[in-house]
Amino acid sequence: MGKLLASILFFATLPSFGQNQVRFDRITVEDGLSQSSITSMVQDEFGYLWIGTLDGLNKYDGNNFYKYKSNDNDSTGLPRNEIKNLFLDNTKNVWISTPGYLSKFFEDQNSFINYALFNDGSKHIAPTVYDLNQESDSILILATNTGIWRLNVINKLLKRSHEFDEFDDKVIFNYCSMNNGDTWIVTDENAYLRRNNKMSFKNVFSSKSPLEFYYSQRTDEVYMQTIDSLYKFDSTLKQFFPLFHFSNKNSRPNWQMPMLKLRNGELWVLRNDISIFNSRDHYQETVSFVQEDPFSLSSDYLSSIFETQEGVVWIGTNGMGLNK
Hints:
- It is a single chain.
- The protein is mainly β.
- The chain is 0% helix and 42% strand.
- It is built from no helices and 30 strands.
- The chain has a four-stranded antiparallel beta sheet with strand order 3-30-29-28, with no helix packed on it.
- A hairpin with a 5-residue loop joins β28 and β29.
- The radius of gyration is 20 Å and the shape is globular.
């Protein structure tokens, strides 16, 4: 199949437009994408880039897109077309979150096993998974719009756990365990931390505006965004400190503010544009959408970011496809 995703980012001065140093190639539905609004991206153990959209799932091998959509007559296909999130488990299997379902892809069979996330008899709506953490070979911890659940992938049972009672029926956007064993749970306006040697969660950050939480497992660093500021967690003092205040033009009315720590140490923060911070968390530059520049970002509605094993940075947009 050749070396997958062998493209690289090009860095050059743009004298014609004078605003961006980072050049992007644009990929749209005309190039094979199932739909132009990107929700999530992951790369599997075989090197394929998986791209979730509002209408279908895409697998990209560096040249071609392979599209997956739901089919009522195929129980091994996707149950829904609206891809909420993509995840990798500890062995780099691809998991797909759609409304009310969680699916696992099997490469050797080119098919899915689907878990219908109907809860334990309550009258609430079926959960939609926003985050996933693998507790063991058989148990997944799911952060959902109806609280935190444990899914047994062997018997397909979805159950509550008493340790998360205080979060029942709350919208949970993030659940993650740090390298030191500390655990984070993040709602829309609050972040809770449980130390490795503690039994309960403590509220360590609150905001009147929605939060965007990011944990870099490679560097063991935690960042948080509010509508106007970027913060970093001090693991010694166990509190957040402000790093940067964004101007009004960076405000995101739709609250999509993803972040990614690149392999070179830079932190890329997506809002209406991309703010780049160096490995010491100092602001470095801003990359923006420029209407007249065909090599700039294709939109200022940025929705997702991913870096492949080859070091290619992909930027998803809400309605204008991909940039790389």
